[in-house]
Write a structure and sequence with these properties.
This protein is mainly α. It folds into 3 domains: 135 residues, no CATH class; 116 residues, Tetratricopeptide repeat domain (Serine Threonine Protein Phosphatase 5, Tetratricopeptide repeat, Alpha Horseshoe), CATH 1.25.40.10; 77 residues, no CATH class. Helix content is 74%, strand content 0%. The protein is globular and about 70 Å long. The termini are close together.
Protein backbone atom coordinates (compact mmCIF):
# COMPACT_ATOMS: atom_id res chain seq x y z
CA UNK A 1 0.00 0.00 0.00
CA UNK A 2 1.45 3.38 -1.02
CA UNK A 3 2.06 6.20 1.49
CA UNK A 4 -0.71 8.39 0.09
CA UNK A 5 -3.24 5.55 0.25
CA UNK A 6 -2.14 4.72 3.80
CA UNK A 7 -2.57 8.33 4.80
CA UNK A 8 -6.09 8.47 3.45
CA UNK A 9 -7.05 5.32 5.31
CA UNK A 10 -5.49 6.54 8.55
CA UNK A 11 -7.40 9.81 8.33
CA UNK A 12 -10.63 7.96 7.63
CA UNK A 13 -9.98 5.54 10.47
CA UNK A 14 -9.48 8.33 12.98
CA UNK A 15 -12.65 10.00 11.74
CA UNK A 16 -14.51 6.75 12.37
CA UNK A 17 -12.98 6.47 15.85
CA UNK A 18 -14.28 9.88 16.78
CA UNK A 19 -17.84 8.75 16.00
CA UNK A 20 -17.77 5.78 18.40
CA UNK A 21 -20.25 6.63 21.16
CA UNK A 22 -18.61 7.12 24.53
CA UNK A 23 -15.12 6.43 23.20
CA UNK A 24 -13.45 9.80 22.58
CA UNK A 25 -10.22 8.39 24.02
CA UNK A 26 -9.82 5.79 21.28
CA UNK A 27 -7.69 7.99 19.01
CA UNK A 28 -5.44 8.98 21.93
CA UNK A 29 -4.88 5.33 22.93
CA UNK A 30 -4.09 4.28 19.36
CA UNK A 31 -1.74 7.20 18.84
CA UNK A 32 0.01 6.56 22.16
CA UNK A 33 0.64 2.95 21.20
CA UNK A 34 1.81 3.73 17.68
CA UNK A 35 4.03 6.50 19.01
CA UNK A 36 5.80 4.12 21.39
CA UNK A 37 4.42 5.77 24.54
CA UNK A 38 2.57 2.60 25.51
CA UNK A 39 4.28 -0.81 25.57
CA UNK A 40 1.92 -2.73 27.85
CA UNK A 41 -1.73 -3.01 27.01
CA UNK A 42 -4.81 -3.59 29.15
CA UNK A 43 -8.55 -3.94 28.85
CA UNK A 44 -8.68 -0.41 27.47
CA UNK A 45 -7.05 -1.63 24.26
CA UNK A 46 -9.47 -4.56 24.10
CA UNK A 47 -12.29 -2.01 24.34
CA UNK A 48 -10.70 -0.08 21.47
CA UNK A 49 -10.76 -3.14 19.17
CA UNK A 50 -14.30 -4.08 20.23
CA UNK A 51 -15.70 -0.57 19.78
CA UNK A 52 -14.01 -0.03 16.42
CA UNK A 53 -15.21 -3.41 15.13
CA UNK A 54 -18.77 -2.52 16.10
CA UNK A 55 -18.56 0.90 14.44
CA UNK A 56 -17.05 -0.49 11.23
CA UNK A 57 -19.83 -3.06 11.09
CA UNK A 58 -22.40 -0.28 11.44
CA UNK A 59 -20.80 1.55 8.52
CA UNK A 60 -20.85 -1.64 6.45
CA UNK A 61 -24.52 -2.21 7.26
CA UNK A 62 -25.41 1.33 6.30
CA UNK A 63 -23.23 2.12 3.30
CA UNK A 64 -21.76 -1.13 2.02
CA UNK A 65 -18.55 -3.06 2.09
CA UNK A 66 -16.32 -1.02 -0.17
CA UNK A 67 -16.58 1.92 2.21
CA UNK A 68 -15.92 -0.12 5.33
CA UNK A 69 -13.49 -2.93 4.50
CA UNK A 70 -10.45 -0.70 3.88
CA UNK A 71 -10.92 0.75 7.36
CA UNK A 72 -11.20 -2.72 8.89
CA UNK A 73 -8.10 -3.99 7.08
CA UNK A 74 -6.09 -0.94 8.09
CA UNK A 75 -7.15 -1.16 11.72
CA UNK A 76 -6.45 -4.89 11.84
CA UNK A 77 -2.93 -4.60 10.38
CA UNK A 78 -1.81 -1.39 12.06
CA UNK A 79 -3.52 -1.56 15.46
CA UNK A 80 -5.09 -4.88 16.48
CA UNK A 81 -2.24 -7.18 15.41
CA UNK A 82 0.48 -4.92 16.95
CA UNK A 83 -1.53 -4.98 20.19
CA UNK A 84 -1.17 -8.77 20.17
CA UNK A 85 2.63 -8.37 20.18
CA UNK A 86 2.63 -6.09 23.22
CA UNK A 87 3.01 -7.15 26.85
CA UNK A 88 -0.28 -8.00 28.56
CA UNK A 89 -1.76 -10.05 31.37
CA UNK A 90 -3.06 -13.46 30.39
CA UNK A 91 -6.72 -12.48 30.72
CA UNK A 92 -6.12 -9.32 28.68
CA UNK A 93 -4.42 -11.32 25.92
CA UNK A 94 -7.27 -13.82 25.76
CA UNK A 95 -9.85 -11.03 25.52
CA UNK A 96 -7.79 -9.30 22.83
CA UNK A 97 -7.50 -12.52 20.82
CA UNK A 98 -11.28 -12.91 20.97
CA UNK A 99 -11.86 -9.32 19.89
CA UNK A 100 -9.36 -9.67 17.04
CA UNK A 101 -11.03 -12.91 15.93
CA UNK A 102 -14.31 -11.05 15.59
CA UNK A 103 -12.63 -8.26 13.64
CA UNK A 104 -11.10 -10.84 11.26
CA UNK A 105 -14.48 -12.51 10.86
CA UNK A 106 -16.11 -9.19 9.99
CA UNK A 107 -13.37 -8.36 7.49
CA UNK A 108 -13.78 -11.78 5.88
CA UNK A 109 -17.52 -11.26 5.63
CA UNK A 110 -16.96 -7.94 3.89
CA UNK A 111 -14.51 -9.56 1.45
CA UNK A 112 -17.26 -12.08 0.59
CA UNK A 113 -19.57 -9.18 -0.16
CA UNK A 114 -17.00 -7.84 -2.64
CA UNK A 115 -16.67 -11.24 -4.31
CA UNK A 116 -13.09 -11.65 -3.04
CA UNK A 117 -13.63 -15.21 -1.88
CA UNK A 118 -10.01 -16.31 -1.58
CA UNK A 119 -9.21 -13.26 0.53
CA UNK A 120 -12.31 -13.89 2.64
CA UNK A 121 -11.18 -17.43 3.39
CA UNK A 122 -7.79 -16.18 4.55
CA UNK A 123 -9.47 -13.77 6.97
CA UNK A 124 -11.77 -16.52 8.18
CA UNK A 125 -8.85 -18.88 8.82
CA UNK A 126 -7.07 -16.19 10.85
CA UNK A 127 -10.30 -15.62 12.80
CA UNK A 128 -10.40 -19.34 13.63
CA UNK A 129 -6.75 -19.24 14.74
CA UNK A 130 -7.32 -16.26 17.03
CA UNK A 131 -10.54 -17.72 18.46
CA UNK A 132 -8.83 -21.06 19.09
CA UNK A 133 -5.89 -19.37 20.83
CA UNK A 134 -8.38 -17.50 23.04
CA UNK A 135 -10.36 -20.70 23.68
CA UNK A 136 -13.42 -18.74 22.55
CA UNK A 137 -15.81 -21.36 21.21
CA UNK A 138 -18.48 -18.77 20.43
CA UNK A 139 -16.17 -16.79 18.13
CA UNK A 140 -14.89 -20.05 16.61
CA UNK A 141 -18.40 -21.37 15.90
CA UNK A 142 -19.54 -18.02 14.56
CA UNK A 143 -16.68 -18.00 12.06
CA UNK A 144 -17.50 -21.53 10.91
CA UNK A 145 -21.04 -20.36 10.32
CA UNK A 146 -19.75 -17.43 8.25
CA UNK A 147 -17.74 -19.87 6.16
CA UNK A 148 -20.89 -21.93 5.67
CA UNK A 149 -22.76 -18.86 4.41
CA UNK A 150 -19.97 -18.25 1.90
CA UNK A 151 -20.02 -21.89 0.74
CA UNK A 152 -23.81 -21.77 0.37
CA UNK A 153 -23.62 -18.65 -1.78
CA UNK A 154 -21.01 -20.33 -3.98
CA UNK A 155 -23.16 -23.42 -4.45
CA UNK A 156 -20.99 -25.83 -2.44
CA UNK A 157 -23.89 -27.48 -0.63
CA UNK A 158 -22.07 -30.39 1.02
CA UNK A 159 -19.30 -28.16 2.35
CA UNK A 160 -21.81 -25.55 3.50
CA UNK A 161 -23.80 -28.09 5.50
CA UNK A 162 -20.70 -29.66 7.00
CA UNK A 163 -19.51 -26.23 8.18
CA UNK A 164 -22.98 -25.30 9.47
CA UNK A 165 -23.22 -28.55 11.43
CA UNK A 166 -19.77 -28.02 12.92
CA UNK A 167 -20.72 -24.48 13.91
CA UNK A 168 -23.96 -25.66 15.52
CA UNK A 169 -22.03 -27.95 17.85
CA UNK A 170 -21.09 -24.81 19.78
CA UNK A 171 -24.76 -23.97 20.40
CA UNK A 172 -25.48 -26.73 22.92
CA UNK A 173 -26.83 -25.17 26.11
CA UNK A 174 -26.69 -21.69 24.56
CA UNK A 175 -29.48 -19.09 24.71
CA UNK A 176 -32.34 -19.57 22.25
CA UNK A 177 -31.38 -16.77 19.79
CA UNK A 178 -27.98 -18.39 19.40
CA UNK A 179 -29.55 -21.76 18.67
CA UNK A 180 -31.78 -20.14 16.05
CA UNK A 181 -28.72 -18.38 14.59
CA UNK A 182 -27.03 -21.72 13.87
CA UNK A 183 -30.09 -23.78 12.98
CA UNK A 184 -31.22 -21.17 10.46
CA UNK A 185 -27.93 -21.49 8.62
CA UNK A 186 -28.13 -25.28 8.78
CA UNK A 187 -31.50 -25.03 7.04
CA UNK A 188 -30.09 -22.59 4.48
CA UNK A 189 -27.13 -24.88 3.77
CA UNK A 190 -29.29 -28.01 3.43
CA UNK A 191 -31.96 -26.48 1.20
CA UNK A 192 -30.52 -27.52 -2.18
CA UNK A 193 -29.72 -31.12 -1.30
CA UNK A 194 -32.01 -32.45 1.39
CA UNK A 195 -35.57 -31.19 1.77
CA UNK A 196 -36.31 -33.03 5.02
CA UNK A 197 -33.07 -31.91 6.68
CA UNK A 198 -33.68 -28.32 5.64
CA UNK A 199 -37.23 -28.34 7.04
CA UNK A 200 -36.09 -30.02 10.26
CA UNK A 201 -33.44 -27.38 10.90
CA UNK A 202 -35.87 -24.64 9.96
CA UNK A 203 -38.36 -25.95 12.52
CA UNK A 204 -35.59 -25.96 15.13
CA UNK A 205 -34.73 -22.36 14.33
CA UNK A 206 -38.37 -21.26 14.46
CA UNK A 207 -38.91 -23.05 17.77
CA UNK A 208 -35.80 -21.48 19.30
CA UNK A 209 -36.78 -18.02 18.11
CA UNK A 210 -40.29 -18.40 19.49
CA UNK A 211 -38.79 -19.14 22.91
CA UNK A 212 -36.22 -16.36 22.77
CA UNK A 213 -36.30 -13.30 24.97
CA UNK A 214 -35.74 -10.51 22.46
CA UNK A 215 -36.07 -7.68 24.96
CA UNK A 216 -32.42 -6.88 24.32
CA UNK A 217 -30.30 -7.18 21.20
CA UNK A 218 -30.64 -10.55 19.47
CA UNK A 219 -27.55 -12.69 19.20
CA UNK A 220 -25.23 -11.56 16.39
CA UNK A 221 -28.08 -9.55 14.85
CA UNK A 222 -30.09 -12.75 14.35
CA UNK A 223 -33.69 -11.81 14.95
CA UNK A 224 -37.10 -12.66 13.45
CA UNK A 225 -36.22 -10.68 10.30
CA UNK A 226 -33.09 -12.79 9.76
CA UNK A 227 -35.04 -15.98 10.43
CA UNK A 228 -37.71 -14.97 7.91
CA UNK A 229 -34.96 -14.47 5.35
CA UNK A 230 -33.82 -18.05 5.92
CA UNK A 231 -37.42 -19.26 5.69
CA UNK A 232 -37.74 -17.42 2.38
CA UNK A 233 -34.53 -18.95 1.03
CA UNK A 234 -35.62 -22.47 1.92
CA UNK A 235 -39.10 -21.99 0.46
CA UNK A 236 -37.58 -20.60 -2.74
CA UNK A 237 -35.28 -23.58 -3.19
CA UNK A 238 -38.15 -25.97 -2.48
CA UNK A 239 -40.26 -24.35 -5.20
CA UNK A 240 -42.72 -22.50 -2.96
CA UNK A 241 -42.36 -19.16 -4.74
CA UNK A 242 -45.43 -17.51 -3.17
CA UNK A 243 -44.30 -18.62 0.29
CA UNK A 244 -40.80 -17.31 -0.39
CA UNK A 245 -42.25 -13.92 -1.35
CA UNK A 246 -44.41 -13.79 1.79
CA UNK A 247 -41.46 -14.64 4.07
CA UNK A 248 -39.13 -12.16 2.37
CA UNK A 249 -41.73 -9.40 2.71
CA UNK A 250 -42.01 -10.22 6.42
CA UNK A 251 -38.22 -10.13 6.70
CA UNK A 252 -38.01 -6.73 5.03
CA UNK A 253 -40.70 -5.28 7.29
CA UNK A 254 -38.77 -6.40 10.37
CA UNK A 255 -35.32 -5.15 9.33
CA UNK A 256 -33.57 -2.72 11.64
CA UNK A 257 -33.41 0.79 10.21
CA UNK A 258 -29.60 0.72 10.16
CA UNK A 259 -29.36 -2.29 7.83
CA UNK A 260 -29.61 -0.25 4.65
CA UNK A 261 -27.37 -2.48 2.54
CA UNK A 262 -29.38 -5.55 3.47
CA UNK A 263 -32.66 -3.71 2.89
CA UNK A 264 -31.68 -2.70 -0.64
CA UNK A 265 -30.36 -6.16 -1.53
CA UNK A 266 -33.50 -7.88 -0.30
CA UNK A 267 -35.71 -5.49 -2.26
CA UNK A 268 -33.90 -6.52 -5.42
CA UNK A 269 -34.41 -10.17 -4.48
CA UNK A 270 -38.09 -9.58 -3.72
CA UNK A 271 -38.57 -8.02 -7.15
CA UNK A 272 -36.98 -11.07 -8.78
CA UNK A 273 -39.46 -13.30 -6.98
CA UNK A 274 -42.43 -11.15 -7.92
CA UNK A 275 -41.33 -11.50 -11.54
CA UNK A 276 -41.12 -15.28 -11.13
CA UNK A 277 -44.75 -15.20 -9.98
CA UNK A 278 -45.64 -13.26 -13.14
CA UNK A 279 -46.27 -9.92 -11.41
CA UNK A 280 -44.22 -7.72 -13.75
CA UNK A 281 -45.65 -4.37 -12.67
CA UNK A 282 -45.20 -5.13 -8.96
CA UNK A 283 -41.67 -6.34 -9.67
CA UNK A 284 -40.82 -3.13 -11.53
CA UNK A 285 -42.23 -0.99 -8.72
CA UNK A 286 -40.13 -2.94 -6.20
CA UNK A 287 -37.01 -2.60 -8.36
CA UNK A 288 -37.66 1.13 -8.70
CA UNK A 289 -37.81 1.47 -4.94
CA UNK A 290 -34.55 -0.45 -4.58
CA UNK A 291 -32.91 1.81 -7.16
CA UNK A 292 -33.91 4.86 -5.10
CA UNK A 293 -31.42 3.83 -2.40
CA UNK A 294 -28.91 1.99 -4.57
CA UNK A 295 -26.57 4.97 -5.22
CA UNK A 296 -25.80 5.19 -1.51
CA UNK A 297 -24.72 1.54 -1.23
CA UNK A 298 -21.33 0.28 -2.42
CA UNK A 299 -21.65 -3.50 -2.25
CA UNK A 300 -20.60 -6.26 -4.60
CA UNK A 301 -23.58 -8.45 -3.82
CA UNK A 302 -25.97 -5.57 -4.42
CA UNK A 303 -24.25 -4.91 -7.74
CA UNK A 304 -24.86 -8.57 -8.63
CA UNK A 305 -28.58 -8.08 -8.04
CA UNK A 306 -28.58 -5.04 -10.35
CA UNK A 307 -26.93 -7.12 -13.08
CA UNK A 308 -29.52 -9.87 -12.53
CA UNK A 309 -32.32 -7.29 -12.75
CA UNK A 310 -31.09 -6.07 -16.14
CA UNK A 311 -30.91 -9.60 -17.52
CA UNK A 312 -34.39 -10.45 -16.26
CA UNK A 313 -36.00 -7.27 -17.58
CA UNK A 314 -34.50 -7.17 -21.08
CA UNK A 315 -37.08 -9.64 -22.46
CA UNK A 316 -39.80 -7.29 -21.13
CA UNK A 317 -38.60 -4.07 -22.78
CA UNK A 318 -41.93 -3.74 -24.49
CA UNK A 319 -43.46 -2.90 -21.11
CA UNK A 320 -43.24 0.79 -20.15
CA UNK A 321 -42.47 0.13 -16.48
CA UNK A 322 -39.69 -2.28 -17.41
CA UNK A 323 -38.18 0.25 -19.85
CA UNK A 324 -38.22 2.92 -17.16
CA UNK A 325 -36.40 0.69 -14.67
CA UNK A 326 -33.82 -0.35 -17.28
CA UNK A 327 -33.23 3.29 -18.21
CA UNK A 328 -32.50 4.15 -14.59
CA UNK A 329 -30.21 1.15 -14.17
CA UNK A 330 -28.26 2.00 -17.32
CA UNK A 331 -27.41 5.45 -15.94
CA UNK A 332 -24.63 4.69 -13.45
CA UNK A 333 -24.69 6.90 -10.36
CA UNK A 334 -21.08 6.24 -9.42
CA UNK A 335 -17.95 4.41 -10.49
CA UNK A 336 -17.59 0.92 -9.17
CA UNK A 337 -14.41 -0.80 -8.15
CA UNK A 338 -12.79 -2.83 -5.40
CA UNK A 339 -10.82 -0.93 -2.80
CA UNK A 340 -7.65 -2.93 -3.41
CA UNK A 341 -6.82 -3.31 0.27
CA UNK A 342 -5.41 -6.67 1.44
Amino acid sequence: MGPSRRGVLRTGLYSVALTVPGRPEIVDRVQAFRGGRLSRIGMGEVAVVTAMTRRIQELDDQFGTRHARPLAANFLVNTAVPYLRADADENVRAALLSATARLCHLTGYMAVDEGLHGLAQRYYVKALEFADAADDRFAYSGTLRGMSVQATDLGHAATALRLADAAAEGAHGAPQPRRAFFAGQQAHAAQTGDRQTALRHLATAERAMSRADLGGAAFASYDPAALNDHVSQVRWELGDIAGAVASLRASNRGLHVGYQRTTVRRRFMLAERYLRLGHLDVACATWARALDDYPGIDSGRVDERVAAMKALLRPHRGNGAARAVLARADTPARARGAAGVP
